[in-house]
Amino acid sequence: MTNSSPAPVAGTLPPAIDGKLAMGWMHTARFLTTAAQLHHLPTIDVPEIAFVGRSNAGKSTCINTLTQQKQLAFASKKPGRTQHINLFSLGRQGITDAVLADLPGYGYAAVSRSDKIRWQQVMVNYLITRSSLTGIVLLCDPRLGLTELDEALLEAVRPRVEDGLKFLILLTKADKLTRAEQAKALSIARLQAGGGEAKIFSALKKQGVDEVAQLLWQWSHPVVPADAATPAEPSVATDSAEDSLAP
Predict the structure, then answer these.
(1) Could you say which DSSP state residue 14 is in?
(2) Which label site among 69, 87, 120, 180 has the fewest CB atoms less than 10 Å from its CB?
(3) Where do the EngB-type G domain residues begin and end (predicted)?
């Protein structure tokens, strides 16, 4: 049975490790499971970090770049059509330090308005009810800025962020902007993050890749009080939510 790390402790982060070590840790990512409904997701007792964003925000490319695996996160040929949550485990063989959750993209123009609303609600339900959720990475194309759907998601998770949930706005495709435009976009995103963080990222130029890997390692290795109880083995029970990602 897979061993696990201590459960997350809000508000306590260790010092950042070296960028190369963080990238080596990210490279251990491997497929864990996929679910079309929230109640099919396994219960996780290690930190879980969700990647969420518009269908064209570069989410799959970001995950593949961070993990140095070309096809770990699958980019659909029809953006916005993927309706599954995919989980990936992190940690050396036999050990699970953390889990990455790749959530379906939303907001793609070719998808009906009813589907957009439904998928957005599924994302919100996941983000506000998932007990193992430790951090959220919201990916955003800085040329477009945060959309109405992004802002609605931000508002929904704000109470959890205020309670200690880690949050990052990741400005992807930064290579499309000049340095001055990057600085302006980053300044705006920091104001919008509301207690979270904001960073610049470019898969093409490898800009911000090490820094994001270091941050995710910190989120996944919280400082645990000396008197904390030893965690149990990971459970395979499922959440009770009935929200379906499939029509």
Answers:
(1) P
(2) 180
(3) 45-222
Q: Are the beta carbons of 52 and 80 closer than 8 angstroms?
A: no
87 forms bridges with which residues in the sheet? 33, 101
Residues 61-96 have pLDDT tens digits of: 999 999 999 889 876 555 544 678 899 999 988 889
Residue 173 CB contacts under 8 Å (≥ 6 apart), including other chains: 58, 141, 142, 143, 202, 203
- CA dist., res. 22 & res. 142, Å (int): 25
What is the C-alpha radius of gyration for the chain, rounded to an integer number of angstroms?
A: 17
Length of the chain: 247
Question: Which tokens is 163 given?
Answer: 């309670």
Type of residue found at 34: T
- pLDDT, tens only, 195-247: 899 999 999 999 999 999 999 999 999 876 655 544 444 444 444 444 555 54
Backbone angles phi, psi at 245, to 5 degrees: -90, -15
- Residue 153 burial class via C-beta count within 10 angstroms: exposed 0-12, middle 13-18, buried 19 and up: buried
- pTM for the whole structure: 0.83
What percentage of the chain has pLDDT greater than the value 70?
78
